UniProtKB/TrEMBL annotation:
InterPro entries: B-gal_1-like, BetaGal1-like_ABD1, BetaGal_gal-bd, Galactose-bd-like_sf, GH, Gly_Hdrlase_35_cat, Glyco_hydro_35_CS, Glycoside_Hdrlase_35
Family: Belongs to the glycosyl hydrolase 35 family.
GO MF, one example: beta-galactosidase activity
Listed name of the protein: Beta-galactosidase
Gene Ontology terms describing biological process: carbohydrate metabolic process
Keywords in alphabetical order: Glycosidase, Hydrolase
Beta-galactosidase galactose-binding domain segment(s): 509-562
Highest taxon listed in the record's lineage: Bacteria
Amino acid sequence: MTHAILSYHDAVLYRSGERYRILAGAIHYFRVHPEHWADRLRKLKAMGANTVDTYVAWNFHQPKAGVAPDFTGWRDLGRFIDTAAAEGLDVIVRPGPYICAEWDNGGFPAWLTGTPGIGLRCMDPQFTGAIEEWFDRLLPIIASRQSSNGGPVVAVQIENEYGSYGDDHDYIRWNRRALEERGITELLFTADGGNDYFLDGGSVEGTWATATLGSRGDEAVATWQRRRPGEPFFNIEFWGGWFDHWGEHHHRRDAGDAAAEVRKMLDLDGSVCLYMAHGGTNFGLGSGSNHDGTKLQPTVTSYDSDAPIAENGALTPKFHAMRAEFFRAQGIEKLPELPAELRAEPAVLPAQVLPLSPAPGLLELARGAGQPVRSVRPLSFEQLGLDSGMVLYSAEAILPGRPDAPAETRIRITGLNDRAYLWVDGTFAGVLDDVTGAEGLAVTGTGVPARLDILVENLGRINYGPLTGHGKGILGGVLVNQRYTFHWTQTPVPLAEWRTEELDLLAGAEFDAEAPADTYLALPGSGKGFVWLNGFLLGRYWEKGPQFTLYAPAPLVRAGHNSIKVLELGEPGTTVELRETADLGPEEAGRIAAAEL
C-alpha cells in the first residue's frame, strides 16, 4: 500500500514521520508567463516557503467542447510542477473542478455551464460525467508527480470552498473517490471558510479540513479544535492582500498587519499558505466577475493582489515581513542574505509616448468580425458556442412615431449580461449594462423600420456564489417599449482568437526595443477596450480604473520591432504610453484592515 508523505495524528502534522509545518504560497501558472515560472518560484523559496500551491483552471486547458485539453506551452502544468521541484519546493495542487480564484467562470468551461438544465457542483450526472472525462486527462499529470512516485506533489484538494456554495456531501465524497480512483494517493483535503457555517457545508468526515481566511486566525484555530479536534490547523488561503474590481478602489493591506496575523497562526502550531504569494496577471480574457446581488463587479486585468512578490516579480515590503515570519517559524531569527539576482529590480523599457493610428468604427469592425447566425429570439453566448469576447445582435424594428411627428420611445433589454452598446440606423445611442438594461435608452422613432445593432461585451463570467455559471449575452429579449423584437442576426466576435488578419484592422502603435524588458502600457484619453502586444492579448483597460496600466512582461517584448494593437469600445485616444512603473490605482483609498477579511 502506498502511504502519503504527509499525515497527521492528534492534531499534529507529519512529513515522513517527522513533525512538520507547511509554509506555503500560492502561484498560479496560468497567471505567470512560463519564462518567469522559475524566477517567481525561486523567490517564493527565498521567502522561506517549503511549498507552492496552485489551482488548475479547467477552461484554460479546454475552452471548447469536444476538443482535447491542451497541456502544452503555457498550459504545461507538468512543467510548472517540475520547475517547482527543481527549486526545492513541495507542491499542493487544487484541481477543483471549481476554483473561484477570481478567474473567469470559476475555472469552469462555458460549454459546460451552458449545458441546458445542468446542475453545477452536485450529483448531477451531466456534471459529474464531464468531470470524469476531464479528470481522466488531468490527473495522470498530477499522479505521476506525487511524492510516492519521486515527485514534489504532497497534497491534493477536493473541490474548493464548497461550504460557500452547497451542502451535497455525496458530491464531495464522490469528488474524493474520483481523485483516488485515478491514482491520487497523497493527502487529500477540503478547504472552507473559518467558521461553523462553512464547515457545515463543505467538510466531510475522514478528510482533512483546511481553512480560508484573512483575519481572526485564533478564532478559526479554536473552531478547528472544537469541530475537528484530531486535525492540525492549516490556513490554505491566508488573504494577505485582495483583488480589485473595475470602478472600485485598489486594495492594499499593511505588511505589518498581515505578518502579525500570520505569526498568530504559526504561534498556535498552524500551517499557512499565502494567497497570493505572487498574484500575476489575468492575461487575455481570464478575469472573472463577482455579483453583489444588484450588479456585476468585473475584476481588473492585474492580479497583483498586493502580494509579497509583485506582479512584475519585485520583492515588496510584505515579502520581507512574511520572510521574517516564515524563518522565525523554523527557529531562524537571523535571516540569510538574499542573492543579488533576487534583489535586483526587473529591467524595464524606457518611457515613451507613441502615436496611435486611427481605426474603423466599432460597429463596422463588429459587423465583419464573424459568421452571422440567424434566430427568431436573441441567442446567448452559450448558444452561439462563444465563451468570451462580444456578440453583435442586429434586427429591424418599427419605432413608434410618424415621419412628420417623431416620437420618443425606449429600447429595453431584459436579461442583459453584461454591457451593451446600442446603435439605431448606424447612429450610436448609448450604453446599457445589467442594471440599466431594463430601464432602457430613449430613442426617436418615425414609424418606419429601423435597424437596431446591439454589441454585447462579456465583462467576465461570475466566479463565486450562487450565480456561478450564469449565462452571457441577451438572456431575455429586446423590447421597443413593451413590445418584443424578433428575428435577429448574431455575429460572434471571438476576441481571444483574433490573429493578424483581424488585428491589422485595429488602431496601432509601434516601438523598437534594444532587448526584451518589462513595460507598462497606458492609454490616456481612451475609454475602454482591449490591448494586444505582438499579437498577444494582454487584457482589458478601462478609464474608470482603478488600474491604469497593463503589465507587459519581458518575454512578450521583442528585441527590435514591436507592435501594439488597440480595440477601443468608446472614445479612442491618440497615444499609447510605455511607462516604467505600474499604476494600479491610489493606495490609501482602498487600504483594507484585517477585520474586513
